[in-house]
Amino acid sequence: MSTTTRQRSPRAIVMVLDSVGAGALPDADAYGDEGSNTLKNTARAVGGLRMPNLQAMGLGNITDIEGVPPTDRPTASWGRCRERSAGKDTTTGHWEMMGLVLERAFPTYPDGFPDEVIDEFIAKTGVPGVLGNKAASGTEIIQEFGAEHVASGKPIVYTSADSVFQVAAHEEAFGLDRLYEVCGIARGMLTGDHCVGRVIARPFVGPDESGRFVRTHRRRDYAVKPFEPTVLDLLRSNGVPVFGVGKIGDIFAWQGVDSSPHVTDNMDAVDKLVAEIARPEDGFVFANLVDFDMLWGHRNDAESYARGLEAVDARIPEVLDAMLPGDLLIITADHGCDPTTPSTDHSREHTPLIAKVKGIDAGCPLGTRSTFADIGETVLDFYGLAGACGRGTSFLDDVKGACL
Description:
about 400 residues; alpha/beta; Alpha-Beta Plaits; 2 domains; seven-stranded mixed β-sheet
């Protein structure tokens, strides 16, 4: 008696190129981001990009990118998304993609955290005090306070233009588990008016031969739980597992996420994304590639940003090869982080939108979408749950070629 292996059902995949923005939003000036365009300005800064795979799919049709011209016959559908939520941070962007639109931005602390927050953190964690307590670059603040931290045992607390409470500590002198513990305590206490989007554990080691301290990949994010059900919850409640890659689990505080393996860098993220696409179980795959934001955008390193874009582009054929006919791939971003501007913070930008159903080698213009939530609605539509969220408009029919 012979047996056959059931082929999995068609799968939807969302691939987030963290911070790869596609031009300033109409209200960007209110955020200090007028003129930002991560893709366009990065390409110009390095004399042009070489991204033949995403070019063929329509990337150059979305915004002017030196070296990535528009094509008359894209192999995928293309457009851009406009953020409806207030803010420009990672949590807000990913939540809106999955149907949760924020009318009020998470709080930020350009002058550091107030005394009542720091005093409560010290009392509840039992640390001997804190160092820093200001908005700062994560790589710079550990150089400034690293030696004092190791000597005193006081963790380094800092923030940025985003809604984050960041705690940096030495993996050996302070202890990695202890760092995670105090960040968990901070997440529990930061509620109400001080409900930041994320608490972030920032471990580091060193000093090295040059006397510098170096951050490690064992970062951990403690996001606030979504205030209401998201597309991820709707999928799972209808029998569709959600397989994250990278920090997806952290961003959603593991609400609506079945698994989300940690990644060390963009290439590891692509490796794991390909593995998740090829897994035999049915389910939705949601991946985040963080290096653009974490390593290059915030450090204004346009050269490395450009090389990172080209490296991911070179791996797009692997992603497509792992897909089965009928699978849906959506490539987008969560905000911008233009490495060519004076600011080292996120930028309020449109995000690129490329969408393809494998087996359909022609695309439709998707225009400028009024909300990131159109992505989540399209995923729901793909799984036969059209309108289940109601926060956006599906573009699935166009991706399937309805406009051709």
